[in-house]
Amino acid sequence: NAYRFGELDKVPGGGPGLAMQTVEEFLGVPIQYYVQIDFDAFVKMIDEIGGVKIDVPSEITIEAIGDLKEVTLQPGRVTLGGKLALAYARARYTDGGDFDRAARQQQVIIGVRDRILDFNQLPTLIAKAPAIYNELSTGIHTNLTLDQIVQLAWLMPQIDKGNIISRVIGTNAVEFGTSPDGLDILRPIPDQVRLIRDEVFTTGGPVGPAAVAQDPVELMKAEAATVSLQNGTATAGLASKTTELLKPDGLNVVEETNADGIYDYTTIFVYGAKPYTVQYLIEKLGLDNARVVNRYDPSVGYDIAVALGNDWASKNP
Fold this sequence. Notes:
43% of the residues lie in helices and 19% in strands. With 317 residues, it is of the alpha/beta class. It is elongated, with a radius of gyration of 24 Å.
């Protein structure tokens, strides 16, 4: 959706720019570059390298665009040409739905890498890069220059396959919800997404500003989340007293107000993907994960709202 809205609203950078910004804010990892490839260019690219080898984990039926003919792949290793590789990457009608599809797309990307290296095609492809780029350029959009693409290609053999980590945000990291305009959506569970993110980006060494520091307070400060503290009790001044407690750590409290009612238990409402700040608040306020409610909605004027309850008031008379 970020890409679509970026194109429709003509934001700076268009769809790719908004997509990069969204992923960066969601994961807390810098995203500097993008490559967008259309179906025709994808098919031509796969055919140029002689197809890709894929380990099919379970039986799957796919249909190449325009062929109107279903092909059933059995479990095992197969070589797919451009059209079938595209169909395999796009197939979604499996038990795992879009989650399985994301995993298959990662399979195809790794398959391209393996095919190029296994057949020692890299020198030939790099020599042909200008011609290939010109042929496919109408279907490929990127903010990388051709020189940068060639430089990255030469780095490919230096990256051990065992050091390539791929993960999919699966069913355990999302929950069903409703968008502000009433559509059924899957909302991320920040704590679970953070675990997946850290598993990928901290295994081989930290890469992003949020991954560099391990002190929970520093991680929270790096996220720069905006927080609304809301008094959900009859104790006057509880929000301002709590601000005095949290602000020295660097928490960005942008609002002190009353909650929408009386809360027996302090509750954290999450509107933006700020997992480190959520974890900080859980630990600082002595809560458990059950007191976190995900209401992902970027249109709200802050990332997190904390409704302070009677449990917190009793500890801070």
